[in-house]
Every structure is written in structure tokens, then in C-alpha cells.
Design goal:
Layout: E1 10-17, H1 21-32, E2 35-40, E3 49-56, E4 59-66, H2 72-80, E5 83-90, H3 94-103, E6 107-117, E7 120-128, E8 134-139, E9 152-156, E10 163-172, H4 178-189, E11 192-197, E12 208-215, E13 222-229, H5 236-244, E14 248-256, H6 259-268, H7 280-288, H8 295-300, E15 304-308, E16 311-317, E17 328-335, H9 345-358
Parallel strand pairs: 1-4, 5-8, 10-13, 14-17
Antiparallel strand pairs: 1-5, 2-3, 2-9, 3-4, 6-7, 7-8, 10-14, 11-12, 12-13, 15-16, 16-17
The structure holds fe (ii) ion.
The site of fe (ii) ion (FE2) has 6 residues, from strand 10 and strand 14.
């Protein structure tokens, strides 16, 4: 990778393709504490699809659905079900970044184009990542509106659950492809490798995976990339690849400053989390030592704890938020630690395997 790499500045939004955006918007409002901020559809001049912008803290999720069978999103939805379509990046200069990406072998989904309305102009282009996941490049210097041109403010406010920002977004790719995508993120987006886990770090009695964490040097954006590894039984990554019909986003980790509060309200709202066996807590406090939070409350809410040289973190994982075992969410609170909870991998993957077994996929 050469020294003149230019990198995205951060995540503008994450767009999800869903079967029914109106109902998904209600789910993200009531179950996850997002407010609806804006809408685009035929009524606002967007033909063929409807999109709802959901916001909480700095997080922006766009829920989009095709309105006609001709729309290419319809075919994608038939194949993959509800899934992440686009992780859109903010960049300084779309044309310059686009040229740079193309020079370095980036796969073009759409050349730079203008989006305009009464509030100004947004320049945008689209680049492919793993599978048909997109990274839009967006520059907002000439735009004064609240979100993007074409969206009309349509606010349905909800009390926030305390989710503040996207911490990391994890992709699952095929066996043997992880290093290709690591190189792609290095060359095309100027990312660096932040961490690496091999199948000895991430294995259970039955299955294994490998993971490398890519990080943008200019933004607090991390992109772990997983691939399945050989084990006695089917890796959870392989189950994902079969259910999603190819590579794609496995989970989105959202930061909270108060995980006890956030997870309490998520649970009251009916969000389903992976069940960790009570024995997890038998040895945990000896391993991680003192933390600022109430340990009893952590145990009651099934929150996982890990510590490294820099501090500790608290995390919990939802079950998949659709019927296919594909996309799920992580809720994370960082107290110094910048890692990913390596000490929890085994318990977490055993919990996932119990659910895989119940689906007949282990
Ligand atoms: Fe994660």
C-alpha cells in the first residue's frame, strides 16, 4: 500500500434492503429506540422504492424496499432476504476518491453523479465490496439539507435507548477469500489491518473461523472480515453464507455509553439476545477484575465482559433480526478496550452453535 492512500472520513449511513420498509421502520422505532427522521418514495419523487431514514445518536439506518418486481432490489431481496445493501462513506471529494479507487482496482457499481434538491447538491458514487455489498461515497460540502436530496423530513420521535454510533461492521466471506478482501480494503480504501484472529482463537469443539479487522486511518470505522475454517461441523460463517446466498454483512455493532440501561430497555421492548449459560459468570470476575458497573446487573442481563491491556468492554449479541440466520446486532460499551472481546469468542460461538443445532445446521 502506498503512502498517498486517501480514506473515507466516516460512515454516513447504513442502508438495509427489507421486504416491508414501513413495518421495519416500526420495528426499529419500537424495538431499538430509533426515531424516524425522513422518508423518500413516489410521493417525494423517488420512483420504484420507498426508504425510511431512522436515527439514534449519530447512527443513520436507511430502510429501503422495492415497490415493483422490475426493480433490481426485488431480485436481490428474493435471493438474500432482508440484508445490508450499502455502508455509505463520507469522503472529502467524491471524484478524487473515485479516481483513486478505480486506479487501485476498486470495482465500480456506479460512476459519480449528482443528487440535488432545494437544499443543494450531493455528489455520490458507488463501489462494490464483498458480494454485492456497496460502499457509497458521499460528499456533503454543497448540501444544507438534513439527510440527502430527495428525502422529505417526516419525523416520528421515540425515546432514545442510548445507542450512539456504529462501532464496527462485520462481513462474512467465503473460505479462502478473507485475505483477498483484506488487500482490497488496504489498496482501495487505504485501510490498515488492526487485529487478526486465527482459528485457534476462534474455535469450539465443532467449528471455527478466522477474522481480520480492517480499520480506516482517518475515521473511527472498523471492518472485521470473517471466513469459515475447517472444523468437525459446519462453521456458523458457512451457515450464514448459505442463508445469505453469498458474502455479506454479518453484524453491526452499536455503541452505548450505558449498556445496563440500553440492554434493559431493548429487552423490555422484546429484542431477543443470545443466551449465555450461567456458568460463563463462574470465572469471569476473576479473569476481568473490578469494573465500574454492578456485576449482578451485568449477570442478570446476560452481558459479556472482557479485558485487555487498555481496559475492558461490555458486549451482548442479538439473535438474527430476520428469519434467516443472517444479520444481527451487537451492543457494546467500551471502557478503554479497543478490541473485540476475544475472551468471549468461545462462549459466544458455543451459544450460536446451540441455535445452529436447533435449526439443523450444525
Ligand atoms: Fe462485533
Amino acid at each position: 500500500m502506498s503512502g498517498d492512500a486517501i480514506s473515507p472520513k466516516g460512515i454516513h449511513h447504513v442502508e438495509l434492503l427489507v421486504g416491508n420498509a414501513k413495518q421495519a421502520a416500526y420495528f426499529y422505532r419500537k424495538a431499538f429506540g430509533f426515531s424516524q427522521l425522513a422518508y423518500a418514495g413516489p410521493e417525494t419523487g423517488l420512483q420504484g422504492q420507498a426508504s425510511y431514514v431512522m436515527g439514534q445518536g449519530k447512527i443513520r439506518l436507511v430502510l429501503s424496499t422495492p415497490l415493483t418486481p422490475e426493480d433490481p432490489m426485488g431480485e436481490r431481496h428474493r435471493l438474500r432476504g432482508d440484508s445490508v445493501l450499502d455502508v455509505a462513506f463520507i469522503v472529502d471529494d467524491v471524484d478524487r476518491q473515485f479516481e483513486h479507487i478505480v486506479d487501485r482496482g476498486g470495482k465500480v457499481a456506479r460512476e459519480p453523479y449528482d443528487m440535488t434538491d432545494d437544499h443543494g447538491r450531493v455528489r455520490r458514487a458507488k463501489i462494490y465490496a464483498y458480494g454485492d455489498t456497496l460502499h457509497s461515497l458521499i460528499s456533503l460540502q454543497d448540501y444544507k439539507g438534513k439527510f440527502l436530496p430527495g428525502y422529505k423530513t417526516q419525523r416520528v420521535a421515540e425515546p432514545s435507548f442510548g445507542l450512539r454510533a456504529v462501532d464496527h461492521i462485520v462481513g462474512n466471506v467465503e473460505d479462502g477469500k478473507m485475505n483477498d478482501w483484506v488487500r482490497y480494503y488496504e489498496q482501495v480504501f487505504g485501510f490498515n489491518q488492526f487485529l487478526s484472529f486465527d482459528d485457534k482463537d476462534i474455535s469450539t469443539e465443532y467449528s471455527a473461523l478466522r477474522s481480520k479487522v480492517m480499520a480506516s486511518p482517518t475515521a473511527n470505522v472498523k471492518f472485521p472480515i470473517n471466513e469459515p475454517a475447517d472444523g468437525l461441523r459446519k462453521s456458523q460463517i458457512q451457515e450464514y453464507l448459505e442463508s445469505h446466498q453469498g458474502p455479506g454483512v454479518q453484524h453491526i455493532a452499536l455503541i452505548t455509553g450505558d449498556i445496563l440501561h440500553t440492554v434493559s430497555v431493548l429487552r423490555q421492548a422484546g429484542v431477543d439476545f443470545l443466551k449465555i449459560p450461567p456458568s460463563y459468570y463462574d470465572s469471569i470476575w476473576d479473569r476481568v477484575g473490578d469494573i465500574n458497573e454492578d456485576c449482578r446487573a451485568i449477570e442478570e442481563l446476560d452481558i459479556l465482559v472482557d479485558r485487555d491491556e487498555e481496559g475492558y468492554l461490555l458486549q451482548i449479541f442479538t439473535r438474527p433480526v430476520e428469519d434467516r440466520p443472517t444479520l444481527f446486532y451487537e451492543i457494546i460499551q467500551r471502557c478503554g478496550s479497543q478490541s473485540f472481546g476475544k475472551g468471549n469468542f468461545k462462549s459466544l460461538f458455543e451459544a450460536i452453535e446451540r441455535e445452529q443445532a436447533a435449526r439443523g445446521n450444525l
